[in-house]
Amino acid sequence: MGSPLGPLLANVFMCSIEENLEQHGQLPRYYRRYVDDTLTVMPDRVTAGQFLDTLNSTHPSLQFTMEVEREGSLPFLGTELLNRAPKIESKVYIKRTNTGLLLHFQSHVDIKYKRSLVNTMVDRAYRLSSNWSFFSEECDRLRGVFHNLKYPKPLVETTIKRFVERRISSADPCPSPDVPSEIVRLVLPFKDQSSANHVKQQLNSLSSKLSVTVQRVFVSTKLDQQLKQHEIKPPIVNQQCIVYEFKCNLCDAGYVGYTRGHLHERVEGHTRKSSSIYKHYHLQHNSEMPERLIEQFNVIAKCNGKFDCLVNEMLYIRMRKPTLNVQTDSIRAKVFV
Fold it and tell me: Can you give the residue ranges of the Reverse transcriptase domain (predicted)?
């Protein structure tokens, strides 16, 4: 076991070399790398050998080796690349030293991990195979591997069958070139992967029947949060010891006041008949007060106590001159020189 930083440091080191080669125009046109395994396309073996010498000369500690195509085949990262000019096909690469040693069915491990292993190997075969023929060949090999590991045949066959059915049903139908396919997006709550796969199959079947492309968008939210009617809570600005301002939504009238409690509690106090705001709506506009009266209030100052509230209230009344305030000098401030 090496250091966890090994792959990261190797990647950083190789990136610096690649940048230097690219600056000098020595990097091949097709160049792909994973950590220290590199895949390139060269016109001939002489050019490939020259590039190998270039890599080995970039640092005294580097010593790359090269493997070239043999009989139209080249292994790379568990994949066997097949030269089928003008295209490249791929299938699962099995080393000669491979013993087929995987998790034995009679081992003391939960059954869900054994099922997951079968599904993972089938999924790997599908992803690395460029066509169904190669995928079928790998599935036949996996049947023999799991048979040697004492896996029940129905378990293996059912897993392969379900995987193939999911892949076929999830394949998007080819749209007609004459009739454009309409796209409908559905936002659905995500419950679990099994439910998501089932919904995906049902919507794909519905899409083919209606000639409509249904795109699924799963969001990680609980359904009860969307259906439950939540109580509207007061805004966060409802703090204690504040100076607030009221603006009438029907005219330019205003009011400045203070409260040592919460703003929404003070707003409820202004709905009483003795309030100047209540009288303003009923006498000046002959109208009821707004249902969301709190939206007409704004916090204009946060204070540290009652005296601070009184001083700020008086200053804002003098500065803004609200028409609904009766008292303008809440406190007589004394200035000591």
Answer: 1-81
Residue with tokens 């295209």: 87
The strand pairing partners of 184, in sequence order, are 214
Q: Which residues pair with 84 in a beta bridge?
A: 87
Residue for token digits 């203070």?
258
CA nearest neighbour of 329 among 311, 308, 314: 314
Token pair of 229 as six digits: 């009617």
Residue 155: per-residue pLDDT: 92
Strand bridging mode 212-219 / 182-189: parallel
* Two structure tokens written together for 78: 């568990």
**Would the pTM of this model clear 0.70, i.e. be above it?**
no
What's the residue count for the chain?
337
> Identity (one letter) of the amino acid at 97?
T
Looking at 57-178, list the stretches that DSSP marks H as alpha helix, in order from N- to C-terminal side: 111-128, 132-148, 153-170
pLDDT tens sequence across 230-288: 555 555 444 678 999 999 988 989 999 999 888 888 888 888 888 889 988 888 888 88
Q: In this structure, what token pair is assigned to residue 48?
A: 């490939």
In contact, 125 and 135? CB cutoff 8 Å: yes
Strand partners, 245: 256, 298
Per residue in 166-207, pLDDT (tens digit) is 887 765 443 444 444 567 777 777 777 777 788 887 877 777
More confident residue, 228 or 122: 122
pLDDT above 70 covers a percentage of the chain that reads 85
Instruction: Indicate the angle between helix axes 153-170 and 193-210, nearest 10 degrees.
Output: 50
List the one residue out of 274, 272, 314, 312 whose CA is nearest residue 293: 272
CA-to-CA separations, 78 to 88, 190, 192, in angstroms, rounded: 15, 34, 31
User: Which tokens belong to 246?
Assistant: 């009221």
CA distances from 41 to 22, 32, 48, 80, 83 (A): 16, 9, 8, 15, 11
What's 237's DSSP letter?
T
Indicate the SS3 state at residue 300.
strand
Q: What is the pLDDT of residue 206?
A: 74
Residue of 245, 283, 247, 289 whose CA lies nearest to 266: 245
Beta bridge partners of 88: 83
